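Complex record, two chains
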Amino acid sequence: MLFYIFAILAIVSGAYMVLTRNLLYAGFSLLIVLLSIAGIYVLLFADFIAVTQLMVYVGGVLVLILFGIMLSSRVQDKSLLSENVNTVWGALVAGLIVVGLSYSILKSNISSLPWLQTMEMDVLGNQKSTVQTIGIKLMTDFVLPFEIASLLLLIALMGAAYIATDKQKV
Amino acid sequence: MLAFVLTLVLLLSIVIVLAYAERKVAAFMQDRLGPTEAGPYGSLQSVLDVLKLLQKEDIVPAAADKNLFKLAPILIFAAVFAGFAVIPFTPDLVPAGIGIGVFYLLAIISLDVVGLLMAGWGSNNKYAMLGAMRSVAQIVSYEIPAGLAILSAVMICQSLDFQEISYQQGALMNRFPGLEFEMNWLFGIEALGINTTTIGGITTWNIFRAPILLISFIIYFIASLAESNRAPFDIPEAESELVAGFHVEYSGFRFAILFLAEYSMMVLVCLVAVILFLGSWNTPLPNIGPVSLAYWTTGTVGELSGILWGGFWLLSKTFVLLFLQLQIRWTYPRLRVDQLMHLCWKVLTPIALGVVLIAGIWRLLMI
């Protein structure tokens, strides 16, 4: 039941985000999409992912997007509107993705997947959250991707600092 | 649902007391009298203020973006109020005891920022816009030292659950499921050989278990002042420059909500500071030999005495911190924007990073 509420919210506000011309409204409906997806994560017992989603996307990326929109609009004293470009190619790519996804979903027999049948409903067991498992996995099985991601972030940070510095004219 | 209503009532009464205290403290520090007319010593003043606000007309500016303007106060208050969901009030009373409470709190507070941008934009007013911009820039920057300071406390406690962190800081530690065989040592160093597990009191508070957390407490407290837009970090609502900041266009009930959200934010950051660093709902009095002050002033968990003592200690510590916030407001002048950013990025963040490193080493001494 809860899942359907979140799913409908996500779909409706996602559709609104795509269809509205006002970029700022699109940004705010992205907020609802992200929140309802976080709700769906919680229903899937992925509490850490849900909160990380809030932290990174709502607290970081979305605020950055809104800041960008607000700082760059109203230059000509009107709200920023998006335009329709590449209508044919966009529709084609989107249609192909929809067809491909529906085809593979319809072809696969999801309820007979072996790991789904042996799955227990009590995912967490005695643990109170997934943090411990995620931490151990990150430091053992997935340590290389984890470190590479941190290196990438460091490079991005240095790049940002370099772009932002005052370049002395020689 | 009961937790929702109880928390809301508690929060409203704390905010009303706080609003009165703010005026009285300000008056005292400036050698004035403050409110004196309504009730004994003017104590009904803030209640009447609220009633006045509720009766006022709800004005929506004609040129404002009406939907955003109307939605923003609700979003701001909802974000702050959602943070209270994970705050444990007594040993066995916590609205939602989720395992990643600390992380959830940090994330849900960042929703507040979106609401502020919404209010600033929706007002269609340059002062409101500038105020929202400043406020958001300030909150986003100060989340970093605050987050690092919280991280060092979490590293010492090895838990993201507020209730578990609370139990660790008192004589009741072994009552928490999963902590039955844990031990507290003086300053957290086992080599000193002084077992404080049953002594409790102030010796098991986080700032005592790992004295390095005293520094992170100070960092957190400074950063939390900035996060709740309090003086000396109140440039988002600098009266001399911006009239009132992002809520300049709001009136009546919507202004009351924004006001409530701002004061709730103050209460929330102080509660978090108390829980993470100052022993949560635990008593400050230690057991000294046969004089078991800690047990006497804790009550029995699960009974009324436990609830009353726990709530009493938590709220009284919170009020001490809130009083400190008020006092700072009327003592220090406002910082400039560049000084604000200098303090955040060049002073607090490097120190906080160092504290995180030392906290990690300290944790190794504790086991």
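Note: The two ends of chain A are 66 Å apart (CA to CA).
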